[in-house]
Amino acid sequence: MSVEYISKKRVKLHIFGIVQGVGFRPFVYQLARKYSLNGYVFNDGGGVVIEVEGEDAELSQFIHDLKLNSPSLARIDSIEQQLIDLTNDKMFSIIDSETTTLQTMVSPDISLCDECRAEMNDVNNRRYKYPFINCTNCGPRYTILNNLPYDRHNTSMRNFEMCDTCRQEYNDPMNRRYHAQPIGCYDCGPNLKIMNLMEDDVKNDKDIMKIATQYIKDGKTIAIKGLGGFHLICDATNDDALLALRLHKQRQKKPLAVMFSNIDCIKKVAKLSATEEKLIVAKERPIVVVQKNKNKYLSKLIAPDIDRVGVFLPYTPLHELLLQEFKKPLVATSANLSDEPIIRDDKELFKKLHLVVQTSLTHDREIMNACDDSVVMDVCGEPIFLRLSRGYAPKSFYLNKRSKKKILALGANQKNT
Ligand SMILES: [Zn+2]
Ligand SMILES: [Zn+2]
Fold first, then answer.
1. In this predicted model, what pLDDT tens digit does every residue of 76-111 receive, in sequence order?
2. Which residues have CB atoms below 5 A from the ion given as ligand 2?
3. Could you read off the pLDDT of 253-299 as tens digits, one per residue?
4. 209-228: per-residue pLDDT in tens?
5. Which whole-number Å values give the CA distances from 178 to 26, 27, 147, 175, 402, in the listed order?
6. pLDDT of residue 360
7. Domains in the chain, ordered, with CATH?
8. Number of C-alpha atoms within 13 angstroms, CB side, residue 367?
9. So what's the ipTM on this one?
10. How far is the centre of ligand 1, averaged over its atoms, from the C-alpha of 138 (Å)?
11. Dihedral angle of Cα 113, 118, 123, 124, to the nearest 10 degrees
12. What are the DSSP calls for 195-231, one per residue?
């Protein structure tokens, strides 16, 4: 037996945590290639399984990097490691998911990443102004998920057949969209439309965003389909629009959240602490309750009689494109009847809220799990959650030892809060 052979090993690693739908397998693939290791990686119902073989030193480096440099959306909770027999694989590959026990963690939905934003704003990109642009670092996850493991056929993207170009990106481990389950484009992905209760619907119109914003400029409230449900949207600087919204929604004084195109716009109407600023730009994009300043730009009907206001930045490309077109802050409040979960279905929207809203900017990617906006507040430098939901839910953690006490578990009654 040669010395070289003795120094070669094969290990099986089982990774638990948030490791599906976050670009983990391409990361493993690239890492294995970097250290000239062979074997394979796949998703199973419990997380990610890697079998990898090569020289001892490279294997150690591989495992070291795996723990330290994993993708930003991943969270490794534990790794089981086992030495197994060599099989002398000639390459490293990513193989199809195995459906076994279903215990893996699901990633929350994540706001548009910088790379996708740059592509969305690039006239020469094939996804220029595409309202559903996403990649393995951003986009919908939990809200489109129907079943585990997190694969396209288990999401509401199963109805969209990928075009050749998207499929190439999806199958290329070196591409940012490798196995990005919600991948799509103008040719193959979800489509926007405007649904009207009183007028004709508007479909496949390149000016659809202009048409939608015209309703808002006219002082109307429209609904917009977000990640986890519909928002009711109106001009945050228009008293009459606010008055009508409050009257029809029978919400006299309850404060309403406002969505701004960027943090500098928020700073014009609010005093922000360092913690608040960090929370506002965080990838989870929660609503942050902040102190108003003396600026009278926003309608006084947004948060009457209190010195605070809930502010947030857009989290989907659709919201971002709407703000680009409208150019002013928008009131964005959950579309629901009092105390009911956020509405996630077109028919339900007009059935329940036809007095409040008659126009909806919607699309054909179904929302599988309703998820309201998260709401957070800075209390002495610590973020305190008033509602932990979109961007953070489903949140999971491990107890570091088995509990001997009985644990009471309660359902969220269709709210992810
Ligand atoms: Zn992205
Ligand atoms: Zn496509």
1. 999 999 999 999 999 999 887 765 545 556 789 999
2. 163, 166, 185, 187-188
3. 899 999 999 999 999 999 999 999 999 999 999 999 999 998 889 99
4. 999 999 999 999 999 999 99
5. 7, 10, 20, 5, 37
6. 96
7. 3-94 (3.30.70.100), 106-189 (3.90.870.30), 192-387 (3.90.870.10)
8. 21
9. 0.99
10. 4
11. -100
12. EESSS--EES-TTHHHHHHHHHHTT--EEEE-SSSEE
Q: Which ligand has its closest atom nearest to the C-alpha of 127?
A: 2
Q: What dihedral angle (degrees, nearest 10) is formed by the CA atoms of 340, 344, 350, 351?
A: -50
Nearest one of 146, 176, 138, 132 to 364, comparing CA atoms: 132
Which one of the ligands is nearest to 168 CA? 2
Question: What span, in angstroms and rounded, lies between the C-alpha atoms of 72 and 369?
Answer: 24
Cα of 310 vs its chain's centroid, Å: 20
User: Residue 133 Cα, ligand 2 centroid: separation in angstroms?
Assistant: 10
C-alpha of residue 178 to centroid of ligand 1, in Å: 12
- Total residue count of the chain as it appears in this document: 417
Which residues make Cβ contacts (< 8 Å) with residue 414, sequence separation at least 6?
Answer: 341, 370
Give strand pairing partners of 372.
none
